[in-house]
Amino acid sequence: MMRKYRWLAGLLLVAAALAWARKQENPDRAPRGNWPKVVWRESVTEEIQNFYLARRTGQVMFHSQEHVWYEGAEGKQVWKMGEGRGWKYIGGGGISWDGQRVLFQTNLEPRRHTNLLDLDVYLVDGAGNLVWVKKNPYRYNTSRLSPSGRFILFGDPFEKTTKVYDQNLNLLWEKEIYLWHVMFDPEEHYLFDSVSGLLFDPQGRQVWDMGRNMRVLALSDDAEVLLAGRFLGGPQAQELFLISRTALKKVPMPGISGSVSPDGSMFAYATPDHQVRVYRTAELFTAGPELKPLFTLGFSKPLLMNLSRDNRSLFIFGQENQLQWSLILVWIPERKVRWREGVEDVVRDVQVTEDNRFVVFKKDKTTLVELQAY
User: Fold this and answer.
1) 101 with 145: CB under 8 angstroms?
2) What's the total number of domains in the chain?
3) How far is it, in rounded angstroms, from Cα 59 to Cα 302?
4) CATH number for the domain that contains residue 320
5) Rg of the chain's alpha carbons, rounded to an integer?
6) I want to staple 269 with a disulfide (CB 3.0 to 4.6 A). Which of 3, 156, 258, 288 is the partner?
7) In what order do the strands lie in the sheet with 191-193?
8) Against a cut of 0.85, is the pTM above it?
9) Of 89, 93, 49, 40, which is closest to residue 66 (Cα–Cα)?
10) Strands 239-244 and 143-145, bridge-based pairing
């Protein structure tokens, strides 16, 4: 009899262990532990002008008017450039999604008028090795690195001109579009110009026309799902459109900002009555704006929302209520806020990786902070 009970107890222990293991391996289970955690906090003696986050791997490039720094996602400064070079102006920066290409421009004179700058363009790898330095091929300092780092864009801040170069600064094509309103899809298969409503492939061929007077707020992979709003002010500015380019469907809704997951299957947006609502896009395209959301979260004024590629998390930054500015991570399968972190109301510039794992924000004029969200 005793042997029988021992066998039964052993069987129950094995079953419990297997159940525990399955629970630990469940990818939809919210991460346990004390999150978020500070990965690094960097204070410098000069005012930080801009910073750029590698969207897939978490490295950060930031610069003052005289120096450029590169921080690894593990919390160590990898390199710094500018000592003894006499730089008085740095701008036009960017970092590729894997952190292996860094772009910036420098000048030996302080910036007064953009058309007077004689700019050198630098491309540096993630280890701090100089790939090349070349003269700015255009007349202004407005440059952008594409998400993958394959393309470098130069644009005119006052005229309707954008030039697209390869990573060796060879001109590929140019269009009459504004650089400020150009957006790539997450996989960099297309780029969209909000002013004209035209979608182009990386070779500059037009592949779609959405129509004018709509600004694109978010794109899914291959630009299959778009979130757009109107350029106009007034009441019409608080109207959003979720658009399926392939299914030729459009769902209007009152809203002020939003996010589409990279695979296009999830959608979140902020309503004028201070709520954030989350939907599955396929259901929304079928049922229309009367569809009940997966869940709703009270939030006064989101400035940034990001749905992760795996559709498990939603990151929100902004004014949560009249008294509090917050960083929030929502775990979608559990329909709950995993954590919230209050920040000072001077914080405005926040960036997050594609998977919502790393968050970087400018705490004050000379300090950057990177958090690991889970």
Assistant:
1) yes
2) 1
3) 25
4) 2.130.10.10
5) 23
6) 258
7) 182-184, 191-193, 198-200, 206-209
8) yes
9) 89
10) unpaired
